[in-house]
Structure prediction request, 206 residues.
Amino acid sequence: MSGKSTVSVVVRDADKIEQRLRKLQSGSETAIKRTVSDFRSRATGWINKGIKQHYGVDSAGVKSASVSIQDTSSGSTLAGISIRYRGRTLTLTHFNMSPKEAPAGTQGKYIRIPGQTTAVAMVKPPKKYSIKATVIKGQRVEMSSKSFLAKGLPFQRQGSGRHPVTVIHTLSVPQMIDGKSKDTIEQIINENIEKRFEHNVNQIMK
Prediction:
């Protein structure tokens, strides 16, 4: 048998597919705007998560930084948004410091004056202790022997004498964001933006 044959291939449910594509086209702008809104409301949480993967800082320490969101695109694009963190360097109290307070003195000792039978005073020598903290996650560090606690704050003597002394500070939240956690934060943000965009598109296409 010889001869030519022909066949026509048509798109099944073409009208429905075209309608869906039009809906996607018109809804893409809405999905982008919703994703931008999600970023504005959720980004600080994503950033905090990235910080805590690398640093032993507590929530109070992270929240101590001031956060401002600048948007030059009026909510239409992610490229127009920047999140600015400003904060001072934190003390060890935000990094699981121990002990929290200077321990009580050791057992009291009476002071007697030679030739007298009764004690004139009793003193309690300070109990020896060392301050420890976890600034970098997974690294428990012991502070210098010159460090001590007063009213719950960690201090360190700068010379061989009792003075001068300064409060022990570590890193600020901006330094942590731009430090070890930088790549992790960028990855977390990108992954969550993709998830939110996909979610918003699916909501629009229902």
Remarks:
- The mean pLDDT is 83.
- The CA atoms of residues 102 and 150 lie 7 Å apart.
